[in-house]
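Course assignment 3, question 2. Fill in each field.
Student: A.L.
Task: Predict the tertiary structure for the chain below.
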Amino acid sequence: MSTGHVLPIHSVVLCHHRIASLQEENFTRASEFIPERWLPNQALPNHTHQLVLPFGSGKRMCPGKRLAEQELYIISAKLFQNFEIELTEELELEFNYLLTPAGPIGLKLNERD
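Answer field:
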């Protein structure tokens, strides 16, 4: 379906993922924190997995995807296994191509017994 837009060659097109992920046409109950929506076979109705593809897809997918994901799982598991983590101050966000913290993140790590 054509929308009538013509982009010049070498144009860069960016999707603001935060806005797209908070729209009900992309995700059911979009404004709610429901991490289970990303688990296999747990998707809610009207859930678009292809909306967020940080490593790309297909033949040009990042070859380090599996390694990066495994590293995230390991470090997260080790942190939560060994520490109780809490924010010490309100987290402020800003948009710089990606949604990022606007300043330092105050965390308190209490070692678990």
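Instructor remarks: The chain has two helices and four strands. Residues 3 and 65 are 33 Å apart (CA to CA).
Grade: pending
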